[in-house]
Amino acid sequence: MILNHIWGLYAHPMEEWKTIDAKRESIVNSLTHILFVAILPCVAAYYASAHIGWSVGARESIFLTQGSAVMLGVAMYLGIIAATFALAYLVYWMAKTFGADPSYTQSLELAAYTATPVIMSGIAALYPELWFVALIFLAGVAYSVYLLYAGIPVLMHIPEERGFLYASSVVTAGLILMVILMVTTAILWTNGFGPTFMS
């Protein structure tokens, strides 16, 4: 079922949102989806960091130690899950302002399925060229934003005009959340929690 939703969100997103809405899945389905999807970029990031090496411009490839790559992968996995739950809470918290009354399960469904393209873009780490990963990540962000705009009116049962404003508010709050995560990462990195590079 999880793979069906992933394929459907790429192949025919509007129909897939209607299918997701009609099925009224349990919170377990959304959790299973996000727990499964979040593994893929973390494994790719671990493998690229420890075994392939990151290439930045014309410099030699940069490698992390195995232990450091594992810690990076685990931190990335926990970060993805935490960010998805935070996005779900934002969707749930803002709902009444726009005339919607979703359950937290519906909000988590929307967050989990909307975040899928940007999360899966992390698989691009298997070709660890900074320009390539950045390009794929931007494409994933763009498609996730599209899914959010398409999915909010369907799952929240509100008119498209209100859905547009709702989605715009969620995108803005999501960008603020992303900046907070980046700042937190930078603070941790500079205070001794950064990775160890192979010499």
TrEMBL record:
It holds the Pfam family Yip1. The keyword Transmembrane applies. Residues 7-181 form the Yip1 domain. Keywords: Membrane, Transmembrane, Transmembrane helix. It is a multi-pass membrane protein. GO terms for cellular component: membrane. The chain crosses the membrane at residues 27-49, 69-95, 107-125, 131-152, 164-189. It is found in: Membrane. InterPro entries: Yip1_dom. This is Yip1 domain-containing protein.
